[in-house]
Amino acid sequence: MKKTILGMIMVLALLAPAFSEGQKEAVPGAAGSSGSYPSLVLKLGHIADPSHPYAQGAVKFSDLVKEKTGGKIDVQVFASSQLGDQKTLIEGLVFGTIDMALVGTAALTQFQPQMGIFDLPFLFDDRAHAFKSLDSVGMDIGKALEPKGIKLLGYMENGIRHMTNNTREIKTPADMNGLKIRVQTSKIFIEMMKAMGASPTPMSMDELYSAMQSGTVDGQENPSAHIYTQRYYEVQKYASRTAHAYAPEPVLISLAKWNSLPAAVQQVILEAAAESIVWQRELSTKSDEELWDKIKATGKMKVIDVDRKPFQAATAKVIEMFADSVGRDNLAKIDALR
Predict the structure, then answer these.
(1) Out of 3.90.226.10, 3.40.190.170, 3.30.2420.10, 1.10.10.10, which CATH number does the structure's domain 2-336 have?
(2) What average pLDDT does range 234-259 have in this prediction?
(3) Is the pTM of this model over 0.85?
C-alpha cells in the first residue's frame, strides 16, 4: 500500500509542479505559513451519510486544509445530498456553483465515458490492484474532465459492491432471475444486472430506501458502508457478498474555482487531497469487515458468502461489451498492473 500511496502523490505532483520538494520553500504561503493565504470558504458536497468512510475522508480533507492554512481556508462539507444528488453536484462543478464534490465514477461517464472503466465487473484482483490502477490509469483518464470544467484531485474509496434483496438468498446468478434490482443510471450497471438475470431499475439513491420498503424494487447493490449507514438492513432480508465491482469515489473541484485560486492555495489542496485519500483508504479497508459485523449484529439481515466465479463468468461479456467505450488500451494497462 505504501508504494501505491507514493505513486499517487507523485501523480499529483506532476499535476502541480509547485508540489515538488525542491520548489516547496519558494512558494509564498507554503503549508505552515498561514499569513500569505486569503480568507476563503469552499463548499464540498456528497450524498453519503456523515458516518460513511468517504464522508469522514471529506472531513479529514477539510481539517487538513484548515490546519495547513492556519484556519484561513474553510472547506465546509455538506453530506447526505444537502447540495443535491450526484447529477446536481456534477452540474454545479461544471457551472461553478459548487466548489468541490465527491461523486461516483458512473455519474461522470456523461462527460468522460472512459471513467466507466472502474464500474466494470470483477475488474480488479484486490484493493492493492485497484489503488495502483486508480493512481495511474485513473488519473490519466480523469484529465479529460478538465475541458468539461471539472478537475480530478484523486480517488477515495466508496467500497466493494455486494447484492442485497428482500425475496430470497442469492447464491448463484440463477437466484437473481427476475429480481428487480436498483442500479445507478449507468449502462454498465444495467447490463451487468441483466447478465446476472436480474431486472435492473435505475433510481437515485435518495429514493432507494422507500422503494425497497414499498416493494417497488426487490433489492440493490452497494458497498457495506452504504448498506449499514443507510440502514438497508431494515428493509432487506438478505445480503450476498458477491464483490462484483469495486467503487472508487473521485475527489473533484470545479475547474473555474481551481483556476481562481492562488498557486499556494492550489498546492495546499493537492497536499490535503493526497493525504486525506491515503487516510480514507486505510479507514475504508479497516471498516469493511467491522461494518459487516455490525450488519450481522442487527439480526435483521442474513449475510451470505458466495462463490464469486459463477458471477464473474456470467458478467465477463459486459467487459467486452464496453471495451471500446472505456478504452481497450486502458484495460490493457490495468491488466498489466496485476
Answers:
(1) 3.40.190.170
(2) 98
(3) yes
